[in-house]
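User: Predict the structure for this protein chain, please.
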Amino acid sequence: MIETKDLCAGYYGKAVVQNVSLDFLPGQVLVLLGPNGCGKSTLLKAALGLLPPMQGTVLYDGTDIRSLSHRQIAQQAALLTQSRSTPSIQALRMVLHGRFPYLSYPRRYSGRDRDIARAAMQTAGCDALERENVSELSGGQRQAVYLAMALAQDTQTVFMDEPTTFLDVRRQMQTMQTAQRLAAEGKAVVAVLHDIALALRFADRIAVMLDGRLLQCAAPEEILRSGVLERAFGVQVYCADTPHGKQYYCVAED
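Assistant: Here is the predicted structure, written as structure tokens:
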């Protein structure tokens, strides 16, 4: 399990994340919510060792992240990044990059590596794109390929930084359903989202951040009742019972 303890992290000596203690539990989807610039993506980078802690620590199964190599970290946690380049490469070969933490140089893929990559593509819903060039795919298709690459790392924890951005509604829901399936398999899934309704519908826990601090982490219904979303976003959040379950919507405050 990965957890942060009184974590402070940021850039150029200025803390963006301040005193955040949070655990990423196997078998759960944890959604990080908060307005732009509140520190969500910075928290993910620090949890992955891409930013060193300024104070506090990140623990991997009780071991301080500062004692782990990048390779060891990559074997335990994968990241679906928010922004990335679009190389001219076959989709399967792109997904196979997720196997790098397990390969020595020069990299030679085994049959097992290819099986894992293909299984990841099937989970991400892009197995039919195996031979397609990534640069020629639609935005939603590329997102699925990059998700498959993260899944091919075969890690206990999967971090997703704004995985639904620029996706149509159907693909947004499919992405979050994939997150739920991964959690059901025992993985810890951590997703940065801006969509309050998606978070309330698909998360097991929601961590609400504001100005670099963790305001509250709890189950969706508790978060909804607490008023913390109104405080963080300046909107009123409502719930309606429908034949398809609870649906959520927001109304901006005057």
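The first helix runs from residue 40 to 47.
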